[in-house]
Amino acid sequence: MSFSSQGFSSDIVRALTECGYEKLTPIQQQAIPHIRRGEDILAHAQTGTGKTAAFSLPILQQLLDNPKPRSKANVRALILAPARELADQIANNIESYSKYTDVSVAAVYGGAKMSSQERKLQAGVDVLVATPGRLIEHLELGNVSLANLEVLVFDEADRMLDMGFIGAIRSIMNGLSAHPQTLLFSATSSAQMNALAQDYLRKPKRIIVNAENSTASTVAHVVYPIEEERKRELLSELIGKKNWKQVLVFVNYKETANEVVKELKLDGIKAVLCHGDKAQSARRRALDEFKTGKARVLVATDVAARGLDIQGLPHVVNYDMPFLAEDYVHRIGRTGRAGQQGHAVSFVSRKEELTLVQVEKLIQQRIRRVVLDGYEPESRDALLVKMHSKPAYKNRQGRTNNANESNAESQSSAEGRVRLMRALKRRSKK
């Protein structure tokens, strides 16, 4: 099915052709007709399935069909995203789709100067992409008005809830004078997200492209059981022996990221960092080096890597297993995109076996295990038997959102929660 068959303007179709878009993806085929009819939708789709085009193209066409003069600070369409990288990526995509139209697009997020963002908003914009925290700042300063908002999109809604943005989201929604068409997109599902949809969506059309919490069929999964202290050694060996050219490595801590990059460089492997302590400009520079092949490895924490779009990325490595099983779905969603083959590798120490079991339960798939000679973990079978016999294993739950977390991006991230837990443990020992 072609984009021209959906009634998009010739200017949009021309831009899509230049972007290399030929046929609609499944999420686009299902979502675009409902959005064109003005219906609210609740869509479950994995990353890399084309969901940005699925919601942005109908919005652009709606703006073109109903042209209105821009007015000070006014916004016609708002797209909320959980992280600055994702917001920037979405805005860039929409600018590409609308390059032959006069639709104005702006992005506002933390880590960038308020003054430059304020100047963009003064004349009013047709499409605004924002992170919740920074949007509230601009609303409080009167830099932006949602009084005439026509369309509202939540992209990666599950990630916004995980990051503690529920308070900010409700504050934004409660400040709306009218009810815009509302579109909610998510890769995973949770009770809190369903409650959000129930509160703010009107008779939504539910769209499920793949089974909820599933992973792309184009991704091959493998697990390497290993002792924690030997992970860095194994990572260097796999990259070297298998001649991996482009590898995105996920870790749970900034300190770990620094150590891994240092180790890789000692082994002659060019690696760059992407975590919360790095300035936005440094993170963008690291990503550019990785995309262009100047760096072979990008080591990132979850908070810094959300929304990264790297075309044709062949390898994702979970150096640390994620804190939440749902985060596994988001991490490996960086590879195997747009029908291409991807490779998801996980290093699992003995203390991470329970997380692996939760991941397999979530994605309903048994992951192949490979034990490399010389890297065999000790007493793994005994640990598994002991673990499965514990009541905590049977009763363990997956995602647990905290609605009372801070709305600030840096404080509501998984890294912030881990630092808090560490501090509490230190106090208890004193």
Please provide a written account of the structure:
The strands form two sheets. This protein has a seven-stranded parallel β-sheet, with helices on both faces. A seven-stranded parallel β-sheet has the order 10-11-9-12-13-8-14, sandwiched between helices. By secondary structure, the chain is α/β, with parallel strands linked by helices. The protein has helices spanning 10-18, 26-36, 51-65, 84-97, 114-122, 132-141, 157-162, 166-174, 191-200, 231-241, 254-266, 280-291, 302-305, 325-332, 353-363, 380-388, 391-395, 409-412, 414-429, and strands at residues 41-44, 75-80, 105-108, 125-130, 151-154, 181-186, 205-208, 219-225, 247-251, 271-274, 297-301, 315-318, 342-348, 368-369. α2 (26-36) runs parallel beside α3 and α14 crosses α15 (353-363). The chain folds into two domains: 4-208, Rossmann fold; 219-388, P-loop containing nucleotide triphosphate hydrolases (Rossmann fold, 3-Layer(aba) Sandwich), CATH 3.40.50. It is built from 19 helices and 14 strands. 46% of the residues are buried. Helices cover 43% and strands 16% of the residues. Mean pLDDT is 84; it is low at 399-421. Keywords: ATP-binding, Helicase, Hydrolase, Nucleotide-binding. Residues 419-430 have a biased composition (Basic residues). This is ATP-dependent RNA helicase RhlE. A motif (Q motif) lies at residues 1-29. One of its GO terms (cellular component) is cytosol.
